[in-house]
Amino acid sequence: MKKIMIVFGTRPEAIKMAPLVNELKSRERMEVVLCVTGQHREMLKQVLKTFKLQPDYNLDIMTNGQDLYDVTTAVMQKIKPVLEKEAPDIVLVHGDTTTTFATALSAYYKGISVGHVEAGLRTYNIYSPYPEEFNRQSVSILAEYNFAPTEWARDNLVREGKDEEKVFVTGNTVIDALSTTVREDYNHELLNWLGQDRLLLITAHRRENLGETMKGMFRAIKRILDEYDDVKAIYPVHMNPIVRNTADEVFGRCESIKLIEPLDIIDFHNFMGRSYLVLTDSGGIQEEAPSLGKPVLVMRDTTERPEGIKAGTLKLVGTNEETIYEQTKMLLDNPSEYGKISKRNNPYGDGKASIRISNILEEVLV
Ligand code: UD1
Ligand code: UDP
Predict the structure, then answer these.
(1) Are residues 166 and 17 in the same domain?
(2) How many CA atoms lie within 13 A of 287 on its CB side?
(3) Same domain assignment for residues 307 and 239
(4) I need a labelling partner for 212 at 20 to 30 A (CA). Which of 79, 117, 134, 148 fits?
(5) Quick one: 29 and 64 in the same domain?
(6) 169-227: per-residue pLDDT in tens?
(7) Interval between CA 320 and ligand 1 midpoint (Å)
(8) Atom of ligand 1 nearest to the CA of 67
């Protein structure tokens, strides 16, 4: 029996690790310990409930308006006794959050092997996204086993000198979750409000965009909503109070947009399925939208997901107000341009990543 400790703390990590937790729990030779850091509180609980996951530990570290020092030090202090008590054979972390970095470092300090899920994504600019690019690069130094979602991610790791024998291309577990959530007969009261109008689905939260940059992104969308009678927007606002204030300030009196609480993943995926266009600075949404054939305007200067750009469903538009406005207008006005990027294509996997990762772990943890 091998003991695997899985650690995550934010909404996207939970969404992407939930299928793996459930798959590993179904394996007889594995004992799974689930530890959540609680870097997110409500947004994490929402996912745990949907996937019916019961953590063995919740470090409950979130504070309102936490900064990077708060998260890093709280995770390290609180996870240390858990690592000592459980002494797992391996700790699995996901992606690039500060929970991921602080957990990997803590496991390393205790001499515990680290497995990194969604390894090898890169922009090679440690300020964009900030601090995620630093987080994932440093976890790659520490991780023994690397589960890369694509060949491109694998190549990055091998080029950086990781042991080829321990880098595996598995697909992205986010597609595992997506395969169970989108439904033909889905309905929601907000979709009645939308009627036959075209839906812009919006999310934004990146630290490097907080403040004036985010205000400009929102102003671009507001100008579109003011100009088009047949376009409406739904924006499940991230719980970060800085994001909320900016959203209220720019969209406060606009009737064509609904500012709502974060959606349950099932609702979010189905809203995405119903949308005309997604405007976001999110990472995970860039992987989900191509599967649903939904165009995404990525409001960032860099992306670590070039496969979606190559596949044609993502367009990197930057954070400048004028460019976001122009590019959105172009996709609303020009059916042939829209047709070119609303293609169903799935460079991120076939929905079986969790099975592959579990098989590999059974093999290597002998
Ligand atoms: C974090 C990750 C980011 C990831 C994002 C996913 C870091 C540094 N950032 O950014 O990589 O893309 O999660 O959403 O790891 N809040 C709540 N309730 C919640 C969640 C957040 O109130 O359930 C508020 C709190 O005031 C909190 C703030 O949002 O202090 C910011 O949360 P934090 O996890 O620090 O940053 P995110 O922008 O969410
Ligand atoms: N998501 C959700 N509800 C929402 C908005 C997003 O469940 O209201 C999901 C989305 O489908 C994706 C993930 O959250 O799987 C993305 O999380 P986020 O944008 O917070 O983080 P990132 O991917 O940028 O790290």
Answers:
(1) yes
(2) 24
(3) yes
(4) 134
(5) yes
(6) 999 999 998 877 888 889 999 999 999 999 999 999 999 999 999 999 999 999 999 99
(7) 23
(8) 35
329 part of a folded domain: yes
| Residue range of the domain that includes 7 | 2-172+349-364
Quote the ligand 1 centre to 42 CA distance (angstroms).
Answer: 11
Tokens 């954070």 locate to 319
Number of domains in the chain: 2
Q: Are residues 17 and 155 in the same domain?
A: yes
Q: Are residues 202 and 163 in the same domain?
A: no
Segments in the chain forming alpha helices (H): 11-25, 42-50, 68-86, 98-109, 132-142, 151-159, 173-178, 189-194, 212-227, 241-251, 265-274, 284-292, 306-311, 321-333, 335-341, 353-364
Catalytic residues: 96, 118, 132, 205, 207, 238
Cα–Cα distances in angstroms (integers) from residue 45 to residues 41, 42, 51, 256, 340, in the given order: 6, 5, 10, 30, 38
Single pTM value for the model: 0.97
Which residue, by CA, sits nearest to atom 14 of ligand 1? 11
Domain at 123, CATH number = 3.40.50.2000
* Same-domain pairing of 81 and 197: no
Atom of ligand 2 nearest to the CA of 236: 8
The residue contributing the CA closest to ligand 2 atom 17 is: 12
Domain-embedded: residue 42: yes
Ligand 2 close to Cβ of residue 46 (< 6 A): no
Q: Is the CB of 236 under 6 A from ligand 2?
A: yes
